[in-house]
Amino acid sequence: MLAKAWRFGASLCAVAAVTAVCRVLAVNATTVALTLLLVILGISTWWGLAEATAASVLAVLGVNFYFLPPVGTLTIHDPQNWIALFAFLVTAVTTSQLSARARRRAEALEERRREVERLYALVQAMSFTGGVTKTIREFVQRVVQVFGCEGAALYYRPAAEVFRSGPESKPVSDHELKVASELDTVSIDAARGVATVAIRVGVRPLGSLALVGNVPLAEIVGAIANMVAITIEKARAIEEASQAEAARQSEVLKAALLDSLAHDIKTPLTSIKAAVTTLVGAEHSGGLSRELLDIINEGADRLNQLAAEVIAMARIEAGKLHLEKKPVAVNELISGALAELGAARRGREVSVEVPDGLPAADADPELAREVVKQFVENALKYSPEEAPVRVTAALKNGKIIIGVADRGSGIEDNERPLIFDKFFRGRRHRFSTKGTGMGLAIAKGIAEAHGERIWVESEAGQGAAFYVSLPAAGGEEN
C-alpha cells in the first residue's frame, strides 16, 4: 500500500515539475502537451495505468491553468482549446492503457519464460535410477525447490500411496488427493493457496498432485502434472526393463547351470550303466546279486532320464533347441518312441493305429520321437496297469495329428490349463506317482519349436488324450 501511494505521489510530482519548468521557460501549449504525454507514457510503462491516469488528469488541469487563455483560471473561452484539451486527455489515457497493456503482456511473457525454465530445470534435475518410488519422492521434493512452493503432495494410485514433501503439505488431506485423481480439470483454491490436478497417461489415471503456497498458473500446474506422468511412466518402463533383463539373465544362468549339472550327472551314469549292464548279463550272477543289479540298473535308467529331461528343459528355456527337420515316417516315430521306453512299459498293452498311405511328417525325428515318448510314458504312469494305451495318427488340413489316449482317472477341469506348465503335477498324483513335472513341458517346447500345437482332451473318470500336430511333408491336405 505504501509503495502504491509513493508511486502516485511521484507521478503527480513529476507532472507538476515538468509543468513548472515549461511555465518558467514560457513554452507554448503544444510543446507542453507533447512533453507531458511523454512523461505520462513513462509513468504508465514504469508504474502502471492507475498512476498514469491520475497524472493525465493533473496534466490536463496544469495545461488549462497555466497555458490556455484565460491563464490563471480553470475556464476556457475558446471552443478549440476545449477540443485540444479533450484530445490531450484522451490521448494521454489511451497511451497509458496501451503502454500498461504492453507492460502486462511483457510481464506475462516473462513469467511464462520463467515457468518454462523452471519446468526445464525440473526435468534436468530428475534421475530415473532408483525405480518408481524413489523417482516420485525425488519429484515431490524437486517441484517444491524449483517452483518455490511451500509444500507438495502426490497420490500414486497403483500403489495406493501418498508422497509428501513435508509437514507443509498437510493442508491437503489424503482423501482430497484421492478425489482429485478422478477430476478432469485443474482446481485452484486461491483462499487456501492450494492447487490440485489429476495425473493421467492418456485416459489411464495414475493419481493426483497438489501444490501448496506459491501456486503457479493453472496451465503450469497442468504441465507439471503431464511431466510427472511422463516421469513416472519412464521410471516404470526403466524399472520393468531392468527387471526383465535381470530375469532373462537369471534364466540364462539357470539354464546354463542345469545344462552343466545334467552333463556332470550323465557322464558317470553312462559308466555305471555300462558296468551294470555287463554284470547283469554275466552268467555267474547269483539271485540276490541279480536282484540288486536290477535295482541299480533301474536307478541308473531313472537318473539318466532325469538328466536328459533337465538338459532338454535347459535348452528349451535358453532358446537353444535347434531343429534338424526332414521327412520321417510316422510309424517310425511311434515305434522308435515305444522302443526307447523299453522296460518302462512292463508288458503294458499299447495299441498303434496308423492309416495306410499317411504321408511323412516334416520334423526333427529325435525331438518328435521325444514328444510321443513323453505322451506314452505319461499315459502309462497315470492309468491302471490293466488299462490299454492307444496311439493314433491322422492327416487333417495338411497336419499330422498324433494322439495318445489312456483310460486313467482323467484331468480335473481346474488343472487342465496348467498341465503343460513346468514342474506342475496334478493334486491326486503329486505324491503317489513318481515324476518331475518336466515331461509335458518339454513336449510343449518341442511342439512350439516346430511352430505347431499341443493340447489335451479329458473328462474326469474317463481318461485323457494328448495330441500334437506336425507339418506333413509336401503339404498334403485331407
Structure, explained:
The protein has 478 residues and is an alpha+beta fold. 55% of the residues lie in helices and 15% in strands. It has helices spanning 2-24, 29-46, 49-67, 79-125, 131-147, 174-180, 218-280, 287-317, 330-341, 365-381, 439-449, and strands at 151-156, 161-164, 187-189, 194-201, 204-212, 326-328, 350-353, 361-363, 389-396, 399-405, 454-459, 463-471. The strands form three sheets. It has a five-stranded antiparallel sheet with strand order 2-1-5-4-3, with helices on both faces. A five-stranded mixed sheet has the order 7-9-10-12-11. A two-stranded antiparallel ribbon has the order 6-8. A hairpin with a 2-residue loop joins strand 9 (389-396) and strand 10. Helix 10 runs antiparallel to helix 11 (439-449). The longest helix has 63 residues, at 218-280. The mean pLDDT is 77.
Task: Give me the secondary-structure topology.
Layout lengths: L1 H23 L4 H18 L2 H19 L11 H47 L5 H17 L3 E6 L4 E4 L9 H7 L6 E3 L4 E8 L2 E9 L5 H63 L6 H31 L8 E3 L1 H12 L8 E4 L7 E3 L1 H17 L7 E8 L2 E7 L33 H11 L4 E6 L3 E9 L7
Parallel strand pairs: 7-9
Antiparallel strand pairs: 1-2, 1-5, 3-4, 4-5, 6-8, 9-10, 10-12, 11-12
Helix content: 55-70%
Task: Report the structural category.
Answer: alpha+beta
Uncertain ranges:
none
The tally of beta strands, per DSSP, is 12
CATH architecture of the largest domain: 2-Layer Sandwich
The rough form would be described as: rod-shaped
CATH level-3 fold name of the largest domain: Heat Shock Protein 90
Written as H for each helix and E for each strand, in order along the chain, the element string is HHHHHEEHEEEHHEHEEHEEHEE
Order of strands in the sheet with most strands: 2-1-5-4-3
